[in-house]
Design a protein that fits this description.
By secondary structure, the protein is an alpha+beta fold. The protein is built from five helices and eight strands; from the N terminus they run ββαααβββαβαββ. Helix 1 packs across helix 3. The longest helix is centred in the N-terminal third of the chain and has 17 residues, at 51-67. The chain starts with 6 loop residues before the first strand and ends with a strand. The relative contact order is 0.14. The model has no long low-confidence stretch (mean pLDDT 90).
C-alpha cells in the first residue's frame, strides 16, 4: 500500500462526517490525551502515557502499513467551520496475508465521542475497504474479538453486522478474560 488511503464517512443524524486516515506523528499529542481515559485503558492492549509512548505507537502503525499486514486508521470528526479535525477513535485491520481467508478488525473510541455511532460507522467504512481491497487476494471473512464483559463492543459488532460466532477462552496476558468472536463475511 504505497498510496495513502483516506476513507470518508458521511454525516449521520447523530454524528458529523468522519475521516479515516493512516496515523501521523502530528497525531501523538491527541493520542496521548485520549489515552488518559480509564475506560479506554481498561480495554487497550498497549498503554500510551507519554509523547514517547505515543510516538512508538504511531510508528508501529506506520510499520504495519509499510509491511502491508496491519492497517491502522486514526478516526477524526470533520466539524463544519472548524479548521482542525478532532480525534475520535481508531480502527484497524490486522493479520492481512495474501491467500489467507481471515483477518481481524479492532477499534476504540475516545471518551468524548462514545454513544454517537462513531465506532460502528468507522468500522463499516473499514470493513467495506478491507473487502474491496483484499477480497481478490482471498479475504473471505473479518473477525472481531472483544472480552465478554465489554457490552459496548458487542453492540458495535452487532450494529456493524458482525455475527456472534463463539465464546473464546481467556488468553492472558493480552486477552485476560473470555471473549466473543464475531464474524462478517464478504458476502454479508
Amino acid at each position: 500500500m504505497s498510496v495513502p488511503v483516506v476513507l470518508q464517512v458521511a454525516t449521520s443524524l447523530l454524528s458529523p462526517a468522519l475521516v479515516l486516515r493512516p496515523w501521523r506523528m502530528e497525531d501523538v499529542a491527541a493520542l496521548v490525551e485520549v489515552s488518559r481515559d480509564r475506560t479506554l485503558r481498561q480495554w487497550a492492549s498497549s498503554v500510551v502515557d507519554t509523547d514517547a509512548d505515543g510516538t512508538r505507537w504511531v510508528q508501529a502503525q506506520q510499520q504495519g502499513w509499510a509491511a502491508g499486514d496491519r492497517f491502522g486508521f486514526a478516526v477524526f470528526e470533520a466539524r463544519t467551520g472548524s479548521v482542525r479535525e478532532q480525534l475520535v477513535g481508531n480502527v484497524v485491520l490486522k493479520g492481512v496475508t495474501s491467500g489467507t481467508p481471515a483477518a481481524e478488525v479492532g477499534y476504540w473510541t475516545a471518551a468524548h465521542a462514545r454513544g454517537r455511532g462513531v465506532a460502528s460507522r468507522a468500522l463499516e467504512a473499514l470493513t467495506n475497504w478491507a473487502f474491496d481491497t483484499f477480497e481478490a487476494d482471498g479475504l473471505e471473512r473479518l473477525e472481531l474479538l472483544h472480552q465478554v464483559d465489554n457490552p459496548a463492543s458487542c453492540r458495535v459488532a452487532q450494529k456493524s453486522r458482525y455475527d456472534f460466532d463463539t465464546i473464546l477462552p481467556a488468553a492472558p496476558p493480552s486477552f485476560p478474560r473470555d471473549g466473543h468472536l464475531h464474524i462478517r463475511r464478504a458476502s454479508a
